[in-house]
Amino acid sequence: MFESLxxxxxxxxxxxxxxxxxxxxxVEEGLRxxxxxxxxxxxxxxxxxxxxxxxxxxxxxxxxxxxxxxAQQLLAIVRQEMVRVMGGxxxxxxxxxxxxxxxxxxPAGGGKTTTAGKLGQYLRKRGRNPLLVSADPERPAAAExxxxxAQKIGIPFESADQDPLTQVPQILGKAKKTxxxxxxxxxxxxxxxxxxxxxxxxxxxxxxxxxxxxxxDALVGQExxxxxxxxxxxxxxxxxxxxxxxxxxxxxxLSLPSRLRLPIVFVGVGERPEDLEPFEPGRMxxxxxxxxxxxxxxxxxxxxxxxxxxxxxxxxxxxxxEDFLAQMEAVRRAGPLEQLLSRLPGFARPKEDEVxxxxxxxxxxxxxxxxxxxxxxxxxGASRKRRIARGSGTTVQDVNRLLAEYEQAKKLLKGLxxxxxxxxKFPFPR
Length: 430
Prior knowledge:
The protein has helices spanning 3-17, 24-40, 45-61, 70-85, 112-125, 142-153, 164-176, 199-207, 223-229, 251-260, 281-288, 294-303, 306-316, 321-333, 337-341, 352-367, 371-375, 382-392, 396-417, and strands at residues 100-105, 130-134, 157-159, 182-186, 211-217, 238-242, 264-268, 276-278. Helix 13 packs antiparallel against helix 14 (321-333) and helix 18 (382-392) crosses helix 19. The two termini are 23 Å apart. The protein folds into three domains: 3-85, Up-down Bundle (Four Helix Bundle (Hemerythrin (Met), subunit A)), CATH 1.20.120; 100-290, 3-Layer(aba) Sandwich (Rossmann fold), CATH 3.40.50; 297-417, Signal recognition particle, SRP54 subunit, M-domain (434 Repressor (Amino-terminal Domain)), CATH 1.10.260. An eight-stranded mixed sheet has the order 3-2-4-1-5-6-7-8, sandwiched between helices. By secondary structure, the protein is α/β, with parallel strands linked by helices. The longest helix is centred in the C-terminal third of the chain and has 22 residues, at 396-417.
């Protein structure tokens, strides 16, 4: 996510940090570089102008904080202004009414149908009882696609693709008499820049949705602004930005909120039903600037039960290689490893096949050990290492590296038990 943008911005601030005290000329040079980076990342020119104007004004006018270097303070100001242009605070769905109606609209190819399923999964995990409704009479097999997705994730489905103006109100009337409390309605896509189907305005009047989400593809960059403008008359309440995991530039995320005057509510970060996340401007700014997203990483691990397992290990004061392998397998269930690792500050995003290859190697090494060796790694000497390497098809160096990583994990857990969190403080106030 945002690899090229993050890499180039990181280089800018590394050069500034290398200068120690910054002169006014240094600040201006840094802002010129940031401008070039943002424009090349397909951020709208008016957004770039406004952002850097506010950064320049604050960089000159604010008092210095003694504990921070000038480069850190400039980074802090850029971060705060990025958060502001992306909406400032995270926005939630209103979900008013029973059932609450969430309408998904947008240009063709933006990912509305897939987003409908992901949103259903997201709401169900949070205690809601969603219903997926296809109201797309124009695209062949639209209802079948959503029905298949609904079956896959185990969420009720209804089709209203013959006569949405009649069928959708009927479906909502039936849902009102059941436990279903949210109806997610998938509507037709349009060619880029074309107005939405005329029946949508009538449908909105009939069902009175609490949330109307514009679904846009992040990969089209600032072109998403023009696409979204055609839907503004419908009374949009927010944006879902899809395919953000494949966006190396970041232009759409930085441009859309201020240009359309709408908050980004959710972002799609992968192909799995679970890969829909609330949009957090602060976290997004951190990731764009290469500062990581530790809060998001912890949430992903909590969902997969990793932190609960770690707490059990801490309580029992025992951490074996079997526990180490079990923790790694639990982390894998939290999502693609390269996505999880990309949330660590300064961690270059590895390729998925490389991560998977290393995990398989680690697993083979541990499984080639005896039960006694797994539970008491300190007994593994040179001859045992050679035997384990032969049995796992690896090298003694691979075995040594695994044991070193295990020891690091063990120290980390001991530190957590005594209330010590690794990594230090965030380099500047938020």
